[in-house]
Design brief:
The complex is a heterodimer. By secondary structure, chain A is α+β, with helices and mostly antiparallel strands. Chain A is built from 8 helices and 19 strands. Chain A has helices spanning about 5-15, 30-40, 60-65, 115-125, 150-155, 205-215, 225-230, 265-275, and strands spanning about 15-20, 20-25, 45, 50-55, 80-85, 90-100, 105-110, 130-135, 140-145, 170-175, 175-180, 190-195, 220, 280-285, 295-300, 305-315, 320-330, 335-340, 345-350. Classes of the chains: A alpha+beta, B alpha+beta. The interface between A and B is medium-sized, with 20 and 13 residues.
């Protein structure tokens, strides 16, 4: 089993489970408390299990243009952008963040997909002309998430964190480590992800001390809260909500596709999908009662099957069951009434467009 | 986490981590502290109505945390006498007080003498917990 540089803290303070080949904390005290700490204050997550791969070399930009549907050359240096790896049929191989550094690209990929992604990337024409380096084990990645993220992280940084814009990053020190600080995350909240270059699995003490310092100002959170937070924010999880059989249009992720772009894996299929409306759409469902779970059937009020739940949980914020799932397009109107079949009994819900919370009150766009 | 789990001496237990407290033929039932901690935040329970018939070791409902759904197994056969209705609005009582205010159901036991011998004593339950991985 793999461990991250912060394993000792997890084992001493949390409940550790296997996730994507890593021993990771699922919670420290309570998923609800950790979840609400992030929505109302600030939490920290060890996300070091996620794959970090550097693509470098003179032809790196051109290589990435052939890899992803987002026009990488038109992204400015300093941008951190979300995009997809696609298969030739337009299915999703992975959803990733690309951090465009001055001289290269740092790709952050899902832990469970890293080996598959590396194989895919190395199989592309032109891969021999760029360097592709897996730096996952040599580095540590911590997410600092919540409306008080700046206050939690600022004491460890000499840059004015408020000047880093959403979906951009800067290279600086965090504590005593060289680091990339990127204003991104997967909770719906404002916050940062920090990649520590000087501390990894084999030299973990620096990362452990930075984490320990952050933990005096932020609530350590496990994978349980990470999952309930991303569901509340309407963010898809690879393997549950998206996979190689889902296309970006039905997944409501077609915004990552740069208009008119061709010359990347899957471009022909994307052009075909884009020419006709999707047959099903990823939607949110708020339940009146009961908790929907992955795999539960969605029906219309007359019990006709119209879809399936791909992620479901209890929302600690709404104190209701919430779900994401695919619903047949004609039945997917926002505000529509549906049923989710919970262990044989149909339970009523309403279709919404995520996030599930009021964006004026919660999330990184909050105005209060 | 290595905290030892509380196992009250006056209760009987199942390998599915339910406890029962006997008062005459009435059996109050809940889940153990180990089960409550393993589930983490309990947020929902689905239970039969009073009068429903339960069989020993058969599933009689579900208990849900944010992440997971678990079956509840009845320690004894009988009929449901009373539900802890407080749990409808405060399911977190199961975490806060698994052996007290977080009790789940009371059963009128119908075959107590025979079935009691199939339940675990506190010592047997402690031994069983020790065999489980962390």
């Amino acid at each position: 089993m793999n461990r991250t540089s912060l394993y000792d803290f997890h084992a001493a303070n949390g409940k550790v489970v296997e996730f994507a080949g890593y021993d990771m904390p699922i919670w420290y005290s309570s998923i609800s408390e950790e979840h609400l700490a992030v929505r109302n204050h600030v939490g920290i997550f060890d996300v070091s299990h996620m794959g970090r791969v550097v693509v470098a070399g003179a032809g790196a930009t051109q290589f990435l243009e052939g890899l992803v549907p987002t026009a990488s050359s038109s992204q400015p240096v300093g941008k951190s952008f979300y995009t997809l790896l696609l298969n030739p049929a337009g299915g999703i191989i992975d959803d990733i963040i690309i951090i465009k550094r001055p001289d290269d690209y740092l790709l952050v990929v899902n832990a469970a997909n890293k080996a598959k992604d590396l194989e895919h990337i190395r199989s592309l024409p032109g891969s021999s002309a760029v360097s592709i380096q897996d730096i996952t084990d040599d580095t540590t990645m911590i997410a600092v998430q919540g409306p008080e993220a700046i206050q939690a992280l600022q004491p460890l940084s000499t840059v004015d964190l408020s000047q880093i814009k959403r979906f951009t990053h800067t290279r600086s020190r965090v504590g005593k480590s060289d680091a990339t600080i990127t204003r991104t995350g997967y909770t719906g909240e404002d916050g940062f992800e920090i990649i520590l270059y000087d501390s990894g699995v084999r030299n973990s003490s620096l990362a452990a001390s930075i984490w320990g310092d952050l933990a005096t100002r932020a609530t350590p959170c496990g994978l349980g809260a990470r999952d309930s937070l991303r569901i509340e924010a309407g963010l898809p999880l690879y393997g549950s909500d998206i996979d190689e059989t889902t296309n970006p249009f039905e997944a409501e992720l077609s915004w990552v596709i740069s208009k008119g772009k061709t010359g990347y894996v899957g471009d022909g299929a994307i052009a075909r999908y884009g020419a006709t409306p999707p047959q099903r759409l990823r939607r949110g469902i708020v339940m009146a009662d009961k908790i929907p779970r992955h795999g539960f059937v969605i029906t219309d009020p007359a019990d006709r099957r119209i879809g399936e739940v791909t992620s479901g949980t209890f929302s600690p914020l709404l104190r209701k069951g919430i779900a994401m799932g695919y619903i047949d397009a004609p039945d997917s109107q926002l505000g529509g009434t549906v049923q989710v079949v919970v262990r044989g009994s149909p339970s009523q819900g309403k279709i919404i467009k995520p996030p599930f919370y009021d964006e004026t009150m919660y999330g990184w766009k909050r105005t209060r | 986490m290595t905290d030892p789990y509380t196992i009250p001496a006056d209760l009987l237990y199942t390998k599915e981590h339910e406890w029962t407290r006997l008062e005459g033929s009435t059996a109050r039932v809940g889940i153990t502290e180990y089960a409550a901690k393993t589930l983490n935040d309990v947020v929902y329970l689905s239970l039969p109505s009073p009068g429903a018939n339960l069989r020993q070791y058969a599933s009689f409902g579900t208990i849900e945390s944010i992440k997971a759904v678990s079956e509840l197994y009845s320690p004894l056969s009988g009929t449901v006498k009373r539900l802890n209705t407080e749990l409808q609005t405060r399911p977190e009582l199961v975490n806060q007080s698994p052996y007290g205010d977080g009790w789940i159901v009371e059963i009128d036991a119908s075959n107590l003498a025979d079935e009691k011998t199939k339940l675990l004593s506190p010592d047997q339950y402690a031994e069983f917990l020790a065999t489980l991985g962390k």
